[in-house]
UniProtKB/TrEMBL annotation:
Topological relation to the membrane, as annotated: Single-pass membrane protein
Transmembrane segments: 7-23
Protein name listed in UniProt: Peptidase
Keywords: Membrane, Transmembrane, Transmembrane helix
InterPro entries assigned to the protein according to its UniProt record, in alphabetical order: Band_7, Band_7/SPFH_dom_sf, Prohibitin
The Band domain, residue ranges: 24-189
Principal location class: membrane
Lineage summary: Bacteria, Pseudomonadati, Bacteroidota, Flavobacteriia, Flavobacteriales
């Protein structure tokens, strides 16, 4: 009984050490994540092998694993930029991105876990200031929104493509102009819209007038052709035809052919 405590204490100590060693030697990586292995006695960060995938892993207790999100992520950035004429513009843009999985070790070694703050956000800010500085506030507010968005993406992509980051999209969420400038632009756009509407009504009225003129000209030409074709002989024949049809009426009458001054038949009767 006296020896039991002396045996139990070392056993408990060894058990605790084993528990700590096992806990330090296991890593569980969730879905959408990957792990970068750092070998304390083996050359540091492992960059020549793929990162550790999802699931349960055993590692030496003296090594470390840094877990990264490798799914598409979004970062939102709000910034003040200057337009081409020096006006202060508030721009809100977001980036869709993801670290390049097979280069995760190099990203960890060269940029670190805070690569978003070190690399991505400064690049977006620089690209946005460069692009917006080429445009006027009116272009930013209306017609050039999509073009600006694409240019910011292109300039950001040129830089981050060599930084082990895959940029998927840049979205310009909001452009806020000074209130006085915004009001002036809206008034100008309204005037332009009213002018376009007035021009449209003028064009429509002109086309309608041309249509009426063409129809009238067509009728006039048709009447002229018809008048030119109606000779005395044709009129006389048509008069005879009409008279003969009248003779078929049940009323009693006498037809004298060629009795009129124009040679047309005369109809005498007691109607």
């Amino acid at each position: 009984m006296d020896k039991l405590p002396k045996i139990a204490l070392p056993a408990i100590f060894i058990f605790i050490v084993l528990i700590i060693a096992i806990s330090k030697s296991t890593v569980t990586i969730d879905s959408g994540q990957a792990g970068v292995l750092y070998k304390t006695f083996g050359g540091g960060v492992v960059t020549d092998e793929p990162p550790m995938g999802e699931g349960f892993h055993l590692v030496a207790p003296w090594n470390r694993v840094t877990v990264y999100e490798v799914r598409q992520q979004e970062v939102l950035e709000k910034m003040n930029v200057l337009s081409s004429n020096g006006l202060d513009i508030k721009l809100e843009a977001s980036a869709w991105f993801e670290p390049i999985r097979n280069d995760l070790g190099k990203l960890h070694q060269e940029k670190g876990e805070d690569y978003i703050q070190r690399v991505l956000l400064p690049t977006i800010r620089s690209a946005a200031r460069s692009v917006v500085g080429r445009y006027t506030p009116e272009q930013l507010y209306s017609s050039k929104r999509d073009a600006i968005q694409q240019e910011i993406f292109d300039e950001t992509q040129k830089i981050v493509s060599g930084q082990y980051i895959q940029l998927n999209e840049i979205l310009v969420r909001d452009v806020t102009l000074p209130p006085t400038i915004k009001d002036a632009i809206e008034r100008k756009l309204k005037q332009e819209q009213e002018s376009l509407e007035y021009e449209f009504r003028l064009v429509t009225a002109k086309k309608e007038a041309e249509k009426v003129t063409i129809e009238a000209q067509g009728k006039a030409d048709a009447n002229r052709i018809l008048s030119a074709s109606l000779t005395d002989k044709i009129l006389q024949d048509k008069g005879i035809d009409a008279t003969l049809k009248l003779s078929e009426s049940p009323n009693s009458k006498v037809i004298v052919v060629g009795g009129g001054e124009s040679g047309l038949p005369l109809i005498l009767g007691n109607n």
